[in-house]
Amino acid sequence: MVRILLVDDEPFIVQGLKAMIELENPKYRIVGEASDGKEALEFLKREKVDLIIADVQMPVMSGLELLETIRKEKISDAYFMVLSGYSDFQYAQQALRYDCIDYVLKPVKQEDLRRVLRQVERLEQEKMEQEEQKQFLEQAMMSRSLAAVLTGEMSSEELEYVEKRLPVSGGLRYVELEMKEEAGRDGAEYRKAFRRACQKHMGEKWKECCVKDIAPDSGRHCTALLLSGEMLREKGQTEKEFLQEFLEKMRQEGFETTAYAGVRVNSLRELEESRRTAAMVKSLRVFGERHEILWYEEEQEKKHGENMILCKEILDELIRAAEENDAGEIARKTEELYRRMGSAGMNRQMVDMNLNYLLFELAHLAMQQNEMVTQEEIFAKIREGACGLQKLRDDQGYLERFVREYAEYLVKLRKKSSRGVLAEVEKEISEHYAENLTLKEMSRKFFVNSAYLGQMFKKKHGISFKEYLNNYRIEQAAELLLRTDKRIYEIAEAVGYHDLDYFINRFISAKGCTPSRFRKKAREEE
């Protein structure tokens, strides 16, 4: 709909314009009338319009004075059409100076009015498309920057961009939301509807604190919330009050949701730690009873009352024995742990608390052994070996075997250093350079975070993985040019390039000449 304001001191002119506009299209709507520029100015301060049609000559304030005023004082950015009974070049020049889209002589003809209305419609469409494109680019930039912040691999520019877009002062907590998917519903559409509902309940100001992320333990897109101190103060709620109310609203929308809350941090720079601990809570949920909200601090520290006992000293010694791969000490500490829990008369809840502490600390330990190992691999290893709290609770021998196997796993992690992984990636390139190799594929194959692998690769070689692969392919192509009589397109195919023009451009960039010139020059020198 195009909202129009008519400004003219001659009533019959206004009525004639209204009649012509109404004949054109119902989407053109007269939202206001004024008999002079001052009256129009007051209207514009209250209402937003898309097009102003104003006479040049009016009492109190002329049409040109109105145009100049709203442009200089930035009262309205509406399109402006001037009406005049005189073909005066000076008037027209002044109107155009202040961004008037047309200067039409009275009496106004239907075709002149139609032309202006069509022009406004086209300009509005272009403006809308530009705004949509701007929003799309901003969202893409935000998604990329936020993804970098969530993984801890952000640049200072990316961090600054997110800080400007997200009002997150006063501390932060990353909360991953897991919805219960229903049979028979399209998974992707269901997740989109879930995220839209989350944004709605966060409210317009805080909807960007509802983020789309890759769940570390599954590789699938998840929806998460960033709970900031500023938001909670504004809403007058604690974290628990807000999250409980939020999940209740989601239930009313038809979404059964579980929340996994990571540790609270002080800034966006530390957000990756909160995300990591939220993923840990989620990945270890299989070992405990299911709750609507799981808080990292409560799961790890288990603030217990007088009837709760944590055998922390023995557990820490058992964890140290696992780190040192001391099978004898693992056996002794496991036996001591069960004896202590038995003599203390612990119930199931108390035993589970001790076992959860052990599993949390073992997961932390694995992450400390090798900075390149993924959380997904660690959690999968724990789930596979522990098989749930009931098994560990009921079988001392089973826990001992699990810790001993986990100790061997830690040894492998120490051997699997970044240096070793980079060597494996370099070997993969040398053996399969002609194939469609990507950094993402390498990260999956060697269980390494792709962003971190890319950083390590660039740190060692001074260039990106993709540049290294391209350079390696060009060197292999140069060898084939010198040692064979294969055609250029055959060599391009042989080293992994299926676009001949792209191959030639890459070769020129690396060697300073075309492949055929490189071959000819080398043979002339022989």
Automatic annotation (TrEMBL):
Residues 106-140 form a coiled coil. GO terms for biological process: phosphorelay signal transduction system. Pfam families: HTH_18, Response_reg. One of its GO terms (molecular function) is sequence-specific DNA binding. SUPFAM superfamilies: CheY-like, Homeodomain-like. The modification 4-aspartylphosphate is found at residue 55. Residues 423-521 form the HTH araC/xylS-type domain. SMART domains: HTH_ARAC (SM00342), REC (SM00448). Its main location: cytoplasm. Transmembrane segments: none annotated. It is found in: Cytoplasm. Residues 3-121 form the Response regulatory domain. It comes from the Bacteria. One of its GO terms (cellular component) is cytoplasm. Keywords: Coiled coil, Cytoplasm, DNA-binding, Phosphoprotein, Transcription, Transcription regulation, Two-component regulatory system. May play the central regulatory role in sporulation. It may be an element of the effector pathway responsible for the activation of sporulation genes in response to nutritional stress. Spo0A may act in concert with spo0H (a sigma factor) to control the expression of some genes that are critical to the sporulation process. This is Stage 0 sporulation protein A homolog. It comes from Candidatus Fusicatenibacter intestinigallinarum. The lineage of its organism: Bacteria, Bacillati, Bacillota, Clostridia, Lachnospirales.
